[in-house]
Design a protein that fits this description.
Blueprint (H helix, E strand, L loop, with lengths): L1 H53 L1 H4 L3 H4 L27 E4 L5 H18 L2 E3 L15 H4 L2 H7 L6 E2 L4 H8 L4 E3 L7 H15 L1 E4 L13 H14 L4 H15 L4 E5 L4 H7 L7 H13 L10 H6 L7 H10 L7 E4 L7 H11 L3 E2 L1 H4 L2 H5 L5 H14 L2 E4 L4 H12 L10 H13 L4 H11 L34
Parallel strand pairs: 1-2, 1-5, 2-3, 4-5, 6-7, 6-9, 7-8
Helix pairs in contact: 4-9, 10-18, 11-12, 14-15, 20-21
Length: about 475
């Protein structure tokens, strides 16, 4: 019985202890619930406060929370992006590419390499941009182009990755890959017969030069159309570049139509080409020193006068003013100068400014703070000029450089927008005869206009020259396979 009594007494004491413990647990639970509720309420108040200040920028998916009741803001969800289905294919390996040259030379190369990767059924790694050329621009692909759009929009054609998978990255770090420069102006069979076996063997191949490494002509139609698709759709500038470009265009549009003059008369162009028309002796010496300072500029001894007469020099600002006037260009039209710093400065621009007083540059239209991010980033500056050039009423390049040709082709794609391509060889002869007095103004002007009737960006087939790809018309200047001719 004692055991029973002891058991009963212990039960009563345990019951009281359990009640006390239960009360304590309940009290703690209420405290935790109260604290949680308070914290949630503080978070809601903070979010509402942030929402009133930043609104759609931070809380665009919570319209009921951040839209003040007294306002009449109506927000709609962003349109759904419909992505093309991924293309399923057996991956033969990975292709890395390092582009060389300026922005528009690299742009064409990127389009070519996407086409090559698609044809070889390999995975393309987002191309590396040139950081070691004359311009020394540190920009990466994603600083200029919308890299996510690039990858997603082309995924029905080719798999594109931002970087190699870790296992293959380690192989590259150990040097277990092949790097080479493909042969210039190659047709697609070269890549199938020479490059694909290397990819299968090494798993990773790096093409370290990509300028003009794919032929203009003689390629399957689907390859040509893919080059166009990458150029006109896949390569989209970053929102920052597009927004700033749109701002420049809107400022210009408020004052009427505008002409973009791609005045390729910067120091590097003159030093490289050896063209010194109108330069004084000190400038000629400076340009010559610069040409010899860059070993990859192969041509050193250059006869400037002979090269000019052959039409191989960029037009000077003075010659450009004369030709625009001969073409009866409206004297009051806005002329946006799409170029870097003009060599010789105001002295060389004086004639052009006198004939056409409404000369503008991006530095005149934008706040220095807006352009600050682009300083020392020549490719981003070039992207801004490219955007404005596409939107202009008239585009006039003074030299057949990469930007001139790629913009011309893009404007053809946008509906054959007016692009005046100077026939420099004919024009130099006419200019010299006019300056010598053997040709009066009316005859000079009429001849200039006649020469350029068929050089206004109208529909036409691309000029092909068998076995001389450097001399034939560049694919990206006239991608007629992708146009409605």
């Amino acid at each position: 019985m004692g055991g029973c009594v002891a058991f009963t007494g212990g039960g009563e004491g345990g019951s009281k202890g359990d009640k006390s413990s239960s009360l304590m647990v309940l009290s703690q639970a209420k405290m935790i619930l109260w604290m949680t509720t308070l914290l949630l309420w503080i978070c809601v108040v903070q979010l509402l406060t942030v929402g009133e200040v930043w609104g759609p920028r931070l809380l665009k998916t919570w319209p009921a929370c951040y839209t003040p009741a007294q306002t009449n803001i109506h927000l709609s969800l962003e349109p759904k992006v419909f992505l093309p289905p991924k293309r399923a294919y057996k991956n033969n390996g990975y292709l890395m590419v390092s582009c060389n040259g300026g922005l528009n030379q690299m742009r064409g190369a990127i389009c070519d390499m996407v086409a090559v990767a698609r044809y070889l059924n390999v995975t393309l790694i987002v191309p590396e941009l040139d950081k070691s050329s004359f311009w020394a621009d540190p920009s990466d692909f994603e600083d200029i182009f919308d890299v996510d759009h690039f990858i997603r929009s082309l995924r029905d054609e080719v798999r594109i990755l931002k970087e190699l998978p870790p296992r293959l990255k380690r192989r590259v770090d150990l040097g277990k890959f092949r790097s080479l420069a493909p042969i210039s102006w190659s047709d697609i069979s070269y890549y199938h017969n020479q490059i694909l076996p290397l990819i299968r063997r090494y798993k990773v191949v790096h093409l370290n030069r990509t300028d003009a490494r794919l032929a203009n002509n003689g390629l399957p139609l689907e390859i040509q159309k893919l080059r166009c698709r990458v150029n006109f759709s896949g390569l989209k500038f970053t929102s920052q570049i597009e927004q700033l470009g749109r701002k420049v265009v809107n400022i210009l549009r408020k004052n009427g139509p505008f002409l973009v003059l791609h005045l390729r008369y910067e120091m590097d162009m003159l030093a490289f080409s050896g063209c010194t028309q109108g330069c004084n002796s000190e400038e000629v010496e400076e340009l010559t020193r610069m040409r010899y300072a860059y070993p990859w500029w192969k041509e050193k001894e250059i006869n400037s006068d002979l090269k000019r007469k052959e039409g191989l020099c960029p037009m000077t600002p003075e010659e450009t003013a004369l030709i625009l006037r001969a073409l009866r260009t409206d004297r009051n039209i806005q002329i946006y100068i799409a170029a870097g710093e003009i060599y010789g400065g105001e002295r060389r621009m004086a004639s052009l400014a006198a004939e056409f007083p409404n000369l503008v540059r991006k530095e005149m239209l934008l706040d220095p703070m807006e352009l600050g991010f682009f300083q020392n980033h020549s490719s981003q500056m070039a992207a801004l000029d490219y955007f404005v050039s596409l939107e202009s009423d008239i585009f006039v390049p003074t030299y057949d450089g990469n930007m001139a040709r790629v913009v011309e082709g893009h404007r053809r794609y946008l509906g054959f927008k007016k692009t005046i391509r100077f026939d420099r060889k004919v024009l130099i002869d006419l200019i010299d005869r006019y300056n010598e007095g053997s040709l009066n103004w009316d005859d000079f002007s009429n001849t200039v206009k006649e020469v350029h009737v068929d050089r206004m960006g109208r529909p036409k087939r691309r000029v092909m020259i068998a076995d001389r790809p450097k001399e034939e018309e560049y694919f990206y200047a006239n991608p007629y396979e992708c146009l409605d001719l």
